[in-house]
C-alpha cells in the first residue's frame, strides 16, 4: 500500500491516482484540511505521519527541504521494527547536497530512500505521462518500479546520489530561461499591436515552440488561468539552489547572471503563491 505526504497540486493528483488504483493507504499534509481544500474521502486523511508507517512506500511531495527533513525524521523515528520500514520516495526538488544528506541519514537507519524528482508538471501527471529521475540506496528497485509506471512515461535511473536533483535543477533553469525570453517576446508583440491569440498560435507552431509556451504561458497569459502550476515562491527557491549548484561550474554567462537577477528580484508579496508568469505584469509589460 502507498501513502503520500503533501497534498499540494502534485500531491493531490498522486493521491487521486493511488485511490483509483485502490492502493492508497492514506495521506497526510502539513497544512490543515481547510487551508489546502482537500477533496478526498476523510477515511484516507491521517492526523500524523506516524499513521503511515505500515505503508510499503511513503511518497513525499513537499515544497521545501525543511519540510522534507522534518517528515523523514518523523518516519525514521517511528520505524524501529522490521515490519515498519517503508521506502521513502522523495519526489520533491532539492539541492544535491541535501539529497546526499537524506540518503546517508536513511542508509544509517536501514531505510530505503529514493531520490526521485519529477519532470513534466501536473498535466503530465494527470495524463499519467510524468517523467522522473531516480536514485536509490538498495537493490530491490523492482518493487517500486510498477508503482512508478502507474503514472510515469519515462524513468531515468542514476547511479549516484544527488545526480537526479542536479539534472532536475538544470532542467528547471532552462524552463525558467525559456519562459522569461518568451515573456519579453510577448511584451514586444503587444506593443506592435498583435493580439495574443495570434502570437501564441504563431509561436507554438514554429521553431520557437516549447512546452512552457504551449502550456504554462498560454494558460496564464492568454487564458488568465493561474490556479495550478509552478508557483513563484517555488521558482525562487529553485533558483537559489540552481545558483548554488551552478557556481561550482563557474558559469561566466551574462544571460545566466541576468536570469538569476530577475528571478531573485523583490516581487509583490501576493505574487509568491501564484503561478510564476504573474511576474509579467511587473517586469515585462511595456507602455504602448
From TrEMBL:
6-phosphogluconate dehydrogenase NADP-binding domain residues: 2-154
Domain 3-hydroxyisobutyrate dehydrogenase-like NAD-binding residues, every copy: 165-250
Family annotation (InterPro entries): 6-PGluconate_DH-like_C_sf (IPR008927), 6PGD_dom2 (IPR013328), 6PGDH_NADP-bd (IPR006115), HIBADH-like_NADP-bd (IPR029154), HIBADH-related (IPR015815), NAD(P)-bd_dom_sf (IPR036291)
Active site as annotated: 168
Alphabetically ordered keywords of this record: NAD, Oxidoreductase
One Pfam assignment: NAD_binding_2
Molecular function terms, GO-annotated: NAD binding; NADP binding; oxidoreductase activity
Top-level taxon in the UniProt lineage: Bacteria
Entry keyword NAD: yes
Keyword Oxidoreductase listed: yes
Gene3D superfamilies to which the protein is assigned, alphabetical: N-(1-d-carboxylethyl)-l-norvaline Dehydrogenase, domain 2 (1.10.1040.10), NAD(P)-binding Rossmann-like Domain (3.40.50.720)
Name this polypeptide is given: NAD(P)-dependent oxidoreductase
Organism per entry: Chryseobacterium pennae
Amino acid at each position: 500500500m502507498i501513502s503520500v505526504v503533501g497534498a499540494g497540486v502534485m500531491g493531490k493528483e498522486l493521491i487521486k491516482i493511488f485511490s483509483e488504483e485502490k492502493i492508497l493507504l492514506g495521506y497526510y499534509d502539513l497544512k490543515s484540511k481547510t487551508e489546502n481544500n482537500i477533496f478526498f474521502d476523510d477515511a484516507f486523511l491521517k492526523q500524523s505521519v506516524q499513521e503511515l508507517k505500515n505503508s510499503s512506500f511513503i511518497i513525499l511531495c513537499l515544497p521545501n527541504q525543511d519540510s522534507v527533513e522534518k517528515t523523514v525524521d518523523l518516519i525514521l523515528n517511528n520505524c524501529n521494527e522490521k515490519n515498519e520500514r517503508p521506502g521513502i520516495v522523495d519526489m520533491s526538488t532539492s539541492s544535491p547536497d541535501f539529497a546526499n544528506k537524506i540518503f546517508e541519514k536513511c542508509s544509517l537507519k536501514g531505510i530505503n530512500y529514493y531520490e526521485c524528482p519529477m519532470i513534466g508538471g501536473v498535466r503530465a501527471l494527470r495524463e499519467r505521462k510524468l517523467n522522473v529521475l531516480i536514485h536509490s540506496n538498495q537493490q530491490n528497485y523492482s518493487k517500486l518500479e510498477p508503482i512508478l509506471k502507474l503514472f510515469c512515461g519515462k524513468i531515468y535511473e542514476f547511479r549516484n546520489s544527488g545526480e537526479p536533483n542536479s539534472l532536475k535543477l538544470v532542467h528547471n533553469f532552462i524552463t525558467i530561461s525559456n519562459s522569461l525570453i518568451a515573456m519579453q517576446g510577448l511584451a514586444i508583440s503587444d506593443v506592435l499591436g498583435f493580439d495574443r491569440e495570434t502570437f501564441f498560435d504563431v509561436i507554438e507552431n514554429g521553431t520557437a515552440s516549447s512546452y512552457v509556451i504551449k502550456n504554462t504561458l498560454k494558460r496564464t497569459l492568454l487564458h488568465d488561468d493561474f490556479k495550478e502550476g509552478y508557483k513563484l515562491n517555488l521558482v525562487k527557491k529553485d533558483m537559489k539552489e540552481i545558483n548554488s549548484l551552478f557556481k561550482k561550474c563557474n558559469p561566466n554567462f551574462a544571460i545566466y547572471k541576468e536570469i538569476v537577477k530577475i528571478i531573485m528580484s523583490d516581487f509583490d508579496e501576493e505574487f509568491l503563491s501564484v503561478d510564476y508568469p504573474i511576474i509579467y505584469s511587473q517586469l515585462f509589460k511595456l507602455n504602448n
